[in-house]
Amino acid sequence: MRLVPEGLRVGDETVPLLAGSVHYWRLEPRDWRACLEATKALGLRLIDVYVPWAVHEVAPGKLELGQTDPRRDVAAFLRLIHDLGLYAIVRPGPHINAELTYFGVPERVVWDPSCQARSPSGNPVMLPMLPVSFPVPSYASEAFLDEVTRYFQALGPVLAPLRWPDGPIVLVQIDNEGALYFRDGAYDQDYHPDAVVAYRAFLRERYKSLDALRAAYGKKPKEAAPVASVAEATPDGAGAASEVATEAAPAHEGASPDAIAAPAEADPADEGLRFTTIEPPRHFDATTIEDLARHLDWAEFHEHLLGAALERYAKALAQSGLSGLPTTHNLPMGQETTPLNAARLTRAVDLAGLDYYYAAGAKARATSARRTTELAVRSEGHGVPAFGCEMGAGYPPFFPPLDERDSAFSVLAALAYGLRGYNVYMAVERDRWIGAPIDRHGRARPFATFWRKLAAAIDRTRFHELVRRVPVRLLTPRSERRLARVMHAFGPLTGAVFSVFGASARERCIEDDLGLGYPLAIEADGLVTAFEQSLEARGVPFAHIGGEDRDVSLAGASWIVCATAGGLKPELATSLGEAARAGAVVTIGPREPVFDGAFRPLAAPLPPELFRPRPSTVPAFVQGDPASVDEAVARAIEELALPTFACDPDGVFATVHEDRGGTPRVLFVLNPGDADVMARVATVGCPGRAVDLLDGTTTEAVRGAFEVRVPRKTVRMMAIE
Description:
The chain is α/β, with parallel strands linked by helices. The chain contains 19 helices and 27 strands.
């Protein structure tokens, strides 16, 4: 049993990851069968099952699993899934959210001071959530981790016998939306004593010596050597990636546990500084570029903290008996503004998927395109399906209302940009939820028809086996995301809120230049936005990628545009050089890299020929103004023969999905606007007929283009025949 690009390989069968969420403890057991059969009738082969710790715990370390309350008999529910020929995705937490009070963590644990995340002043970190605010647990707390381990040890013996083939369990989710319980600002948390110890160990591992730490955090680092301009690269030069200065890879050293958070921050330039006394930053106080390193290290430590916690959860689950199963984790909306680093998480889990809850419209389309293309390229590189762990069908009552049009738009837009599977959340109605396609007694509502047709369309076209080719990659280094996070201007109001509503770094980051003469945190985002607009205007397929996914996300690219405000990690520069020598054209902007990923001066200039080992008419450097970006895109289309799927009128978009042999099979036409349109889409190698997979209408090609009516805020999914 293993994950494959098309879904999940179970025995001799490949099962597409099409799932539906059913919450057994919120339903009457007499309705379980009807609800599961109705979910199966939607064309879904997997049932997504949360196992809520707080619902089952009756005493510390003791769980009620159906001995006296049949609603809590998770084993009976899973056996019924198995009897119906279905598979199960089990999500035991510890955090499950599920609109439960305390997010499914027992109240006694939430209110235990030793388990609570801490603010810079040492207070519990409160989450203002309905129906009651609560202090969030610490991902670093040894006390909390011990409680989680005890919970898994009690649950594991009940679930382990139900692994496939003896039961339905084929996939296990580790934790849930691990963005520090949505208190994910860079300086919101975690100053728990165990977190501070872990932070010091992180710095010790990174810098290895106090001299190296002082050099990085000193008051005035040495001036950087002059750096040759990338724009001045000689096309016929011969560079080698080995010439790039690389950071030392320090050996692991354990942290001393003999110190906890001090009341005041230690001065890194202090000759008496020790790894065991250095303090994390408690607010953004950088005034010069030399001050940034410690803040960016703190942001990266948050990523390390979450990854390490998920690794411990996964190990504890395996030791409880749930070994031998592929694992997953779901990233919430706006995850790029949080410390959730998918490249780091995939060291803990096999698959990192996304959640989708959007109101149909232009901002939703653009945001979904950014998130999904990055997910799709990463997943393809890892050989796993791009999965929507929660595809909203309905909404919790504290969300803005989302109707059926919104849900249909969200899932179809995500499929258009490369999603290969989804979990209908919720498939079955329950408390604190509005709008599921099946009611709590197993009766299908009208919205069920859409989901049945969609699953049938995926099956008919073998959509889970198709690929969307994206020869252009817009690369945002992880250092840029850390920079935007530490320079977030709205305090405890998470940056994810801005991202969900389509706002970028320009709207949410402070505009300080730290002495460089330009607004540091928003430079890279401006370039990415300019290239998005230019490429979409011409219908060129592209994907967003993250810097730390470089080993899997650069493969197959014809053109890579790397956005940087002047910092570039040497390892990333090396990877870009390797991609260039493999045939990709690399363009950098809007600032030339003179710093490393922590915005410390590079030890040596990056050789200009590193990114341009052969002649090209495509610019090596672009400042980001629309005219320069448009010119670069036009040259790339001509020189690299980039495919184009242009649409008329403006504001309408198209994507094409091919089989492994390169034959176009499915066309999506997206109209996120407020008016119905008659769209014209160039066929570009497609046969002459397209059949709408949801309503059955047929469109013939006319003068080399498909002309299709697309209602407002709608996506059409069409089979190309």
